[in-house]
Amino acid sequence: MWKCGLVMISDVIQKENSDLVVVRISKSVFNNRDGSTTRGFLPGAHLRLGYQFKDWKFWTLPSHPYSIASNYEDRSSQVELIVKRTRFQIVAGFEYSIHPHLPSALPLEFFQTVENISIVCGGSGLGFGLPIFNYFKEKIIKEGRDIKLNFIWITRNEGDLYLLDELAIHGVTVYLTGSNGLGQDQFEHQQHISLNQNENQSNSPFDDIELSTLPQNTTTTDNQDQEIPNDPPPYTEFAKSTPSLPPPSAPSLSHESRDIDSVLSEDLHTTSFQNKIIKNVGRPNLSELLAEHSVKTIDYANKWVVSCGPRSLNTDCQKIAEDELKCRYFTEDYAM
Predict the structure, then answer these.
(1) What is the dihedral of CA 303, 305, 306, 308, to 10 degrees?
(2) Which residues have CB under 8 Å from 191's CB, separation 6+?
(3) Which residue in 101, 237, 243, 245 has its CB near the most CB atoms, within 10 A?
(4) Parallel, antiparallel, or unpaired for β 116-122 and 64-67?
(5) CATH number 3.40.50.80 is the correct assignment for the domain at 108-333
(6) Distance of CA 273 to the CA centre of its chain
(7) Cβ 45 vs Cβ 68: under 8 Å
(8) Which domain of life is it from (predicted)?
């Protein structure tokens, strides 16, 4: 059994131009009471951090739930969190109270039978979607499972892209929606694909929102401090029409710009950064993107859309999944 206790923060990685922070703690916090190694946890699990027991704030303020952004099977002795900067500061070398395991709410059936999955993350929701994506990449490579993966991360802040290197994220499609997004020249210099440039130059309905911020009355809070009351401007819905799409053909890509399907057979730790990452500047048409991926398999019972971000983003993804794609859906709200 897991127990509440104290944990020392091993490392905190943060950049001045990003509100997203990487926190690392020892994987040993998941050991059993007798010190024996636990069986681990599935992607989508959480933990809670709070003040030390001797601090009066421990008794008067709530602890803070965070998605575990790494997988238990990872070789590292640390687990990672992706945390949004708030008034609850996490400092390396300091001890915090911890409840080390809140199980994943994803059904076991999902892990056993999924054939087609699109994961859509907004802001710090990356911390929930990333371990799911990496889990199934490992299943494809090591067990030969035939699973179609689609991983989308939407963030308005260019500075957040440091996480791609820091966490060795490969295979994600990133949409920068803020006005400080990378320009086309910078993209070409970094040897990343920029798809649908004409469409991406249009004004984005995501530009005016902070994707990792939600109203306080959400049912599940992740990676956010509940003490800051600032609500974001409304999330503007994008077009919901489902295009009539033929099965997508394989694109003709250079070595530096192959998509996720062309590199999954390679070792996750040796393939270079450039040929695993696709970035797009501008708003994503999620209705179209999810439909394009959905047609890669037939069985609707084993098709899933998983979203993790603002409630408004999750609501749109749910409508697309259930009303347009007729597939299964799971969400986590990321709230203040």
Answers:
(1) 180
(2) 256, 257, 274
(3) 101
(4) unpaired
(5) yes
(6) 18
(7) yes
(8) Eukaryota
DSSP string across 192-261: -B---HHHHTSPPTTTTS-TT---TT-S---SS-TT--PPPPPPPP---PPP--PPPPPP---GGG--GG
Residues of the chain with CATH 2.40.30.10: 5-102
Q: Say which amino acid occupies 49.
A: L
Q: Which two tokens stand for residue 34?
A: 């007798």
Q: Per the structure block, which two tokens stand in for 175?
A: 């949409």
Amino acid letter at 127? G
Nearest one of 317, 318, 330 to 286, comparing CA atoms: 317
Q: What fold characterizes domain 5-102?
A: Elongation Factor Tu (Ef-tu); domain 3 (2.40.30)
pLDDT tens-place values along the chain, 336 residues long: 456 789 999 999 999 999 999 999 999 888 776 666 666 899 999 999 999 999 999 899 889 999 999 999 898 999 999 999 999 999 999 999 998 778 999 999 999 999 999 999 999 999 999 999 999 999 998 899 999 999 999 998 999 999 999 999 988 999 998 755 444 333 332 333 333 333 333 333 433 333 333 333 333 444 544 333 333 333 333 333 333 333 433 333 333 333 444 444 344 433 332 445 677 677 789 999 999 999 999 999 999 999 999 888 999 999 999 999 999 999 987 653
